[in-house]
Specification:
The protein is an alpha/beta fold. It is built from 18 helices and 16 strands. It has a 5-stranded parallel β-sheet. A 5-stranded parallel β-sheet has the order 6-14-7-8-9. Strands 10, 11, 12 and 13 form a 4-stranded antiparallel β-sheet that branches. Helix 9 links the parallel strand 1 and strand 2. The longest helix has 20 residues. The mean pLDDT is 94.
């Protein structure tokens, strides 16, 4: 995949990966051996006919390729950019046993970009209307997928979105250099063309309750509100100025265009020394954003070893190329402020790995007396998120786990309230875009079966 030069891209928010050319895509597609029992499909949470669309690319029949893709996936340009194919479909590719697997994700991006930029996205045929209304709460990947699948079945679908723009975590949580807003806009527009009505600035639980939605004639409701409540470490000094949650930092930058201040009205200050606590994709997005906002030194502070880093290998590689300094086996214990209440340093402790914990990863253990100080004037805490408790607090009978996530029937997506379904991060906690989309598809099937009495 051709990419921007690291020295150039660390100063701009343009997309890093530039996409396959037509020639490269065809050559890559021709590597597929079209297995009789393709395991790659089993590795795809939304069940795309992967050999089918790749075969059409190899034959240069791009029109048929995008048709096969969109039969199961209404958001291919998004999945082709941010889904961890290396641990899902590509991990199942038999070519990967002795060689590199087929670059399924890059081919998915290619065919989606070809349709948008060359062919033009064609308006899909509207399904015969059933005259039954369903409500989707949240316009993120789970909600958009669920809405698209139900619209294809002929339902009258309305999405209620709390923010002023659609996309959920795709728009507020992923930087432009990985997920341009123009891509999100095009994918959301396709869902609208399926017949989905999207209403923004409506908070279910405040603007309307779920009981009121049922009273308005909705036959079933899907909850796809994600996990937008940031987690913190609760260590001394965490309330100092200059310390952000990853949610706030990325939302101010991405959704509210802080990187274009003062052209846009959202200021976002980053000093000379920025640090991000955590090792996932959100942490990589945050520290690479800090670099682009002017940080001279950028640190990833992660309490386990590099082997345990949960971020995609590609994102770690890009961060290193751009100059990010990795302080692994390191954990902050307190933040130190100046006389004006701004963070100026943090005290960290070196760690060692013990026996595996419940996650299967080796447990990090502190090394006594190994404390030292790192100068920082911006810190972003990216150690995970939880669902916002608002909806659960105002909805009686909705069963939740001890982590605040919603309990569901995994086969149907139905919650403890008949007719109310859920999926994505509100059920699993923070996970991947494609897993949320898979949950949206399961819930769409469950809602259809519930409404039709099957």
């Amino acid at each position: 995949m051709p990419e921007q030069d690291p020295i150039v891209r660390r100063s701009n928010f343009d997309e890093v990966a530039l996409g396959f050319s037509e020639e490269t895509a065809v050559i890559e597609a021709q590597r597929c051996i079209l297995c009789k029992k393709p395991q790659c499909i089993d590795g795809c949470p939304v069940g795309i006919d992967i050999p089918g669309f790749i075969k059409k690319i190899a034959e240069k029949d791009f029109e048929s390729a995008i048709g096969i893709m969109k039969d199961q996936n209404s958001l291919p340009a998004i999945c082709g950019r941010v889904c961890p194919q290396e641990t899902q479909c590509e991990a199942k590719c038999v070519l990967g046993i002795k060689d590199k697997p087929v670059a399924i994700g890059r081919l998915e991006r290619f065919i989606a970009d070809w349709e948008r930029d060359v062919s033009g996205i064609k308006s899909p045929e509207r399904a015969k209307q059933l005259g039954k209304k369903v409500a989707i709460v949240g316009a993120g990947p789970a909600g958009l997928t669920c809405a698209g699948d139900l619209a294809k079945k002929g339902y009258d679908v309305t999405i209620f979105e709390a923010l002023h723009a659609t996309g959920g975590v795709l728009r507020y949580g992923i930087p432009e250099f990985r997920m341009p807003n123009t891509i999100i806009d095009a994918e959301v527009d396709y869902v609208k063309q399926l017949g989905v009505d999207i209403q923004c600035n409506i908070i279910i639980g405040l603007t309307f309750t779920m009981d009121e939605l049922f009273e308005q004639g909705y036959k079933a409701i899907f909850l796809g509100t994600g996990a937008g409540l940031p987690n913190f470490m609760n260590i001394p000094g965490e309330s100092l100025n200059g310390i952000y949650s990853a949610n706030e930092f990325l939302t101010r930058n991405n959704l509210m265009r802080g990187y274009l201040f003062p052209e846009y009205d959202t200021p976002i200050g980053v000093g000379k020394n920025a640090a991000v606590i955590g090792g996932g994709n959100v942490a990589m997005d945050s520290i690479r954003t800090a670099l682009r906002l002017g940080a001279e030194k950028a640190y990833i502070i992660y309490r386990r070893s590099e082997v345990e880093l949960p971020a995609r290998i590609e994102e770690i590689h890009h961060a290193k190329e751009e100059g990010v300094i990795f302080r692994i086996l390191t954990n902050p214990v307190r933040y130190i402020g100046d006389e004006n209440g701004w963070v100026k340093a943090m005290e960290v402790l070196e760690m060692k790995l013990g026996e595996p914990d419940d996650s299967g990863r080796r447990r990090p253990l502190p090394i006594e007396g190994s404390n030292y100080i790192i100068e920082v004037d911006t810190v972003v805490v990216a150690i995970g998120t939880s669902p916002n408790p608002l909806l659960m607090r105002v909805t009686s009978g909705l069963e939740t786990s001890r982590w605040g996530t919603i309990n569901i029937d995994e086969k149907t997506g139905m919650t403890s309230i008949p007719g109310v379904f859920a999926g994505g991060d509100i059920v699993t906690g923070a996970a991947t875009v494609i897993e949320a989309m898979g949950a949206g598809k399961i819930a769409a099937r469950g809602m259809h079966e519930y409404i039709t009495g099957k």
